[in-house]
Write a structure and sequence with these properties.
- By secondary structure, the protein is an all-alpha fold.
- It folds into two domains: about 60 residues, no CATH class; about 250 residues, Ribonucleotide Reductase, subunit A, CATH 1.10.620.
- It has 19 helices and no strands.
Length: about 375
């Protein structure tokens, strides 16, 4: 019965030959330039085949290379047929946003003109499973430190000055890390290609774990000292304490720097190096020299993330300048304003560094931040 009903039907290969045997038909159905002449391309990743030929791709390449259809690529299907990144009306507000703030952004446009963004590669070749494996190890390390704090009743021996430091100055940093995470999300969402999306996706997760661990540490102290006010002043101090206002102003202005070049430069070349130095390294140091060695060790785990971020961002700027050497000028024009804001944020932290008997000189922090700026400029060729 079934065979009789299907007797007049063609097999799938006959259907395929009928509709796709001619190149002209192929070009009508597969409009993307990458798929023209479909019969001659028998790989899942035709754009990757252009790059490596018939070689076996690495795992990183197969799950990362040129996979965002909304990339800043004039040869992509949506740009060729709509003149915009998404499969929406060309006049849709999202299309206008990407075209104005990303595609016309000086650094993005210059690199597109110089050959495109697709060949940028993360020097750590981070993919999802690898990230989870690395971070699982780091999280186990931090969990172990927190378990030691509980097992040794470490918090019960902290001097009052350290408790005040945690309550008034450390708790507010969770708002800082959340702001950095949000900016990473924007840089990833607006990124010009999938390999750049990936680095900012993982970077955002790294900053979010910092916010989570700050909240966890404050709650641990609140359990030991329920009447000390832990967790009750963080937001107010972040919004009102003079030590945090230059930092808050800088990161909030960064969050509304929608132009992709400025969003990237303000983050990678100014605020992030300064914040990682001032808040990770030196807040951990201040706690350590005043009797709390655990915070510095927790921050060491975060600093490993920052080291990877540094490598990825340096490689990104190097790639951009290799493709478009003249783009250095657009970056240089943005540096003075954002680096001055970063330095002001560090200087304002003087009351934090001096809030306990053993102090860290803010001048030392400022000099180290300036040194990081110089290292970045040298590394990327500015």
């Amino acid at each position: 019965m079934v065979s009789g009903a299907m007797s007049g039907a063609m097999d799938w290969d006959e259907v395929y030959r009928k509709y796709f045997a001619k190149a002209s038909m192929t070009e009508k159905v597969f409009r993307d330039r990458e798929y023209q002449g479909y019969r001659r391309i028998w790989v899942t990743w035709p754009m990757l085949e252009k790059k490596i030929g018939r070689k076996r791709p690495t795992e990183y390449q197969s799950v990362s290379y040129a996979l965002a259809y909304w990339a800043a690529d004039p040869d992509s299907p949506t740009y060729r047929y709509l003149g915009a990144p998404f499969e929406l009306s060309p006049t849709h507000h999202i299309q206008k946003w990407y075209i104005y703030f990303r595609d016309r952004s000086p650094l993005v446009a210059a690199v597109v003109e110089g050959g495109g963004w697709h060949d940028y590669a993360d020097p750590h070749e981070m993919v999802y499973w690898k990230y989870n494996s690395v971070m699982d190890e780091e999280e186990r390390f931090v969990d172990g430190l927190l378990e030691q704090i509980v097992a040794t009743r470490h918090d019960t021996r902290l001097p009052e000055e350290v408790l005040v430091f945690y309550r008034d100055f450390y708790d507010p940093t969770r708002y800082l890390w959340h702001a950095m995470q949000m900016h990473c999300a924007y840089l990833g969402q607006m990124a010009p290609t999938s390999t750049v999306i990936n680095i900012f996706t993982f970077m955002g997760m790294d900053h979010l774990r910092r916010a989570q661990r700050v909240a966890q540490r404050i709650k641990m102290l609140d359990i030991v000292y329920p009447d000390f006010g832990f967790g009750t002043r963080g937001r107010q101090n972040w919004e009102e304490h003079p030590a945090f206002q230059p930092t808050r102003q800088a990161v909030e202005q960064m969050l509304v720097a929608y132009d992709y070049t400025e969003a990237l430069v303000s983050f990678a070349a100014a605020l992030k190096p300064a914040i990682d130095t001032a808040y990770l390294k030196y807040l951990g140091l201040v706690a350590e020299i005043n009797g709390d060695r655990y915070l510095a060790q927790i921050h060491m785990s975060f600093e490993k993330d920052s080291s990877r971020h540094w490598d990825q961002l340096v490689a990104l700027f190097r790639y951009a300048f290799e493709k478009a050497p003249a783009a250095r000028n657009a970056v240089r024009q943005l540096l003075p304003r954002w680096r001055e804001a970063a330095l002001q944020a560090v200087v304002a932290l003087k009351p934090v560094y001096e809030s306990m008997p053993a102090k860290a000189p803010v001048e030392q922090v400022v000099e180290e931040v300036r040194s990081r700026f110089a290292q970045f400029d040298s590394a990327v060729g500015l």
